[in-house]
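Continuing the batch. This is chain 6 of the set; chains 1 through 5 are on the previous pages. Same settings as before, nothing changed between runs. Recording input and output for traceability.
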Amino acid sequence: MLDKFHLNHYSSKKIDIIISAILTLLIVVTRIPFVSKYLYEWDSVNYALGFEKFDIVHHQPHPPGYIFYIGIGRVINALFNDPNTTMIFISIVFSIITVILIYFLAKQMFSRQFAVIAALLLVFNPLFWYYGEISTIYPTQAFLATIVAYLSYQVFRGKEKFFYPSIIALGLAGGFRQDLIIYMFPLWFFCAFYHKRDPNRLLKAIIVLIPSVLVWVIPTMIFSGGIEQYSQASSTLYKIAFPRSSILFGSTIINKLTAVGSYFTWLGLALTYSGIIIMALFTKYVGKGPKHVFRENIKDYRVIFLILWFLPTSLMYLLIHIAKPGYMLVFIPVLAIVLAYFVKELSYSLSSRFKKYSPKKCLTIVLSLILLFNIAYFTVPYNINEEKLWETPISDLGSLSIQDQVLWVLDMGFMSTHEKINADDQSTQTYLNAISNVPGSNSSNTIIVMGEITRENEGFNWRKAMYYLPDYQVYYLIEADHFVTSEWYAKNHTNTWLASNIFKIPVNSSTQKVIWVISNQSAYFPQITSQIPVKTINLPDGLKLYYSDINGTQIKNNELVFNGPEQY
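Output for chain 6:
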């Protein structure tokens, strides 16, 4: 009998290894063909600059610092010598580990069959897939949340050897993203103290947690120039972000409603459209909705576990701040597990209605349809508005037709696909090519001035311009209302901050050209044309590039002056 146990145990481990290998292969073959070619967003450049020099004051990276992520990136970048490739490599590796951890966690919580369903739903979740293709920190965040959850669950199951690793993982996670400690602490606390409510146990946890936090806090402070400089840099960023999205910090009702709408939109995106359809079909064919299922199982420790993983993060997003769909990756594994339940239960219900199909056959059909739908959604090249709204500032949305407003919102909020990544790459490449081909211009005689254009994707912004065109002087005309202070001038991957809303761009004797990457709808555009003539270059997809010849042009006091928005 003992031999049979060992044989079954060996067979089970072998199956787990095979499934893990298949999941790894699926991640690799689905990610590599679609990776972005350029640093994807503003923050991506911040991380890339951090690989060169860690400087939070100049947003290399932006506060609160992400020192462990920068450290890992710097090591790996020594191999690739390309920050974009480095960050995508990190994203793919952590995507693989996250999926495998979810497989083992779901297997322990439910069954191997359930675990395979959850893991596949996560692999082909378009939002998870999307962020695994670009240079961002969010797949790392998904991994860290999952490793803390996995280790905490082992403690909950009575495996005491995981008690200290779980609290160490929680503390170290803050070195990648500080907010993870807040998000994951309630789950860890529940698992660690559900069975053993011992004050000494809590004291031991605190003793272990403190050095796990200090190991990244102290270096962050040191490399930032001290506590005062770190605090000032962090508070400046928070003064910009929080008042725009949180009523607790002075947000307007409209901004708060927009933030709440963004949360629920991106939550739907994280659940996937196919997942929402499955939940609707579940309600119809099983005869009870998700809310009813929740109430039935509220006392189940597994449900409590998933709620404690999901709820603290959601409350922070709803009350304080949420900026982009990537934030959902903290709890996207929870959604994969929840959706796996509905997929399995719906399949068994359909099997009882259609007798000729076994439960396993129904499950295979339903799961296959979901995965095919998600694959098509992510990979099929389509753009619902054919790029015609690329350079539409939010402030000018009211001037669009109702149809175009709807299309703009759909592309902004509901499309996280390979086509959006490809469009972002094309936009960056288009502008880089156009700037290099402006007649008679080069880095020694040309100034580049960037405006602030709100597109459906990140497009080509000031941060990308200063990174990919390091030999040029690149200025940034800030349009965000009530900005506190901001970077506004850069050359050779270093930048200068502006503490005024008056922008003065010096034009000396060597300056022959000024290239304007700005929308003609911008409030700055009339200020430009009133000071200097502007020529237009038409680019693909309705984009435009403007430039001015300085030769022989009289410019008052040899500087171009612009009045920016009101400051805090």
